[in-house]
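ok trying again, last paste got cut off:
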Amino acid sequence: MASLYHRARVMTCTGSDADPLGLIANGAVLTDGGHIVWVGDAVDAAAACRALDVLPGERVDLGGRLLTPGLIDCHTHAIFAGDRAAEFALRARGASYLEIAAAGGGIAATLAPTRAAADATLERLTIDRLLAARATGTTTMEVKSGYDLTVAGELRLLRVIAHAGARAPLAVVPTLLCHVVPPERRSDRAAYVRELVEVLVPTVAADRLATSVDVYCDDGAFTRDETAAILGAARNAGLGVRAHVGQFSDHGAAELCAELGALSVDHLEQVSPAAIAALAAAGTVAVMLPGACVQLRLPPPPVAALRAAGVPLAVASDLNPGSSYASSLPVQMWLATTHFSMSVEEAWLGVTRIAARALGLVDRGLLVPGARADLVVWNAEHPAEIPYRYGSNLVDRVVTA
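nice, full thing came through this time. structure:
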């Protein structure tokens, strides 16, 4: 059914330097249920409907409220079981993430409950998290595997992600995450990496279980050479390339990702000027994850240097059980604007147009004809109100294609 949303402050996210958000003060959006058909000034809506020969079955008067593209969360670990609240308490008393991981906590602490959970349990937990994200405006959510670390287990997680995505009222983008070397394989690390390269990545590609491969290259995770081998296999298999880079130390993975034409590099608390220049030249998106950065008390990424170089900046939740147990993108926008010195406009583009780019998607994150009809109506008039009032959910309604 065609729908006309009118008398709205429409934020198209297609603007110029002078108006980055492309705001239409008295705007209207016409959809056919699945896609946007027309966007413009509300006074022209009737003529547009006649010209397009579209008779809206639903006319929604938004009374001046803000209408935006649906939000896109381009980095989450939403499939897991178990709880790590005790680690949060340890960090609050001063323990570092790496100290906790070395003592058997961190990612390794989530393996056992996730491996033990039945498919139905993991699916229910994942759907609950997807629904919580949708309630705060998310209409597309990337979900990574990575909390099993065996070939069979990672394939199982990706299949559960697909089942959860089919049942949830938002779009799910699956990613294979090569997270860390599991404790039981550390004695044959090289053999484990070969298994990922020769078995897991090709199987994921052949079975179309993910659109990209992400590798965590950092202290306690994969080395640069291991990352190069895994991401090389991903590219050879026709999958997108992404990586966790420089959260704790700079291992040169950002330059590697630029060479490989990566969709994104995520975290970047530690990154060199040369790497920033390489990312800018490659057009690779830098995904800011302020929730994890603030919770782990890390120095923020060099946002000013990234901006000056022209590196596109996305913002994501990093929803995970250890360092950012939060699914609300408005909260991350608040953190991005207050802790990362990003502008309100940068934060908005970071959860819409640029977040879509980080996932290799061209049909969302914008209000333009042909884009998916993923919309959010906010109980607000100004874009700044959403991060400013981060403690309140200002969503009036969420519309998904």
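cool. The chain is about 40% helix and 20% strand. The chain has two domains: 3-70+366-399, 71-358.
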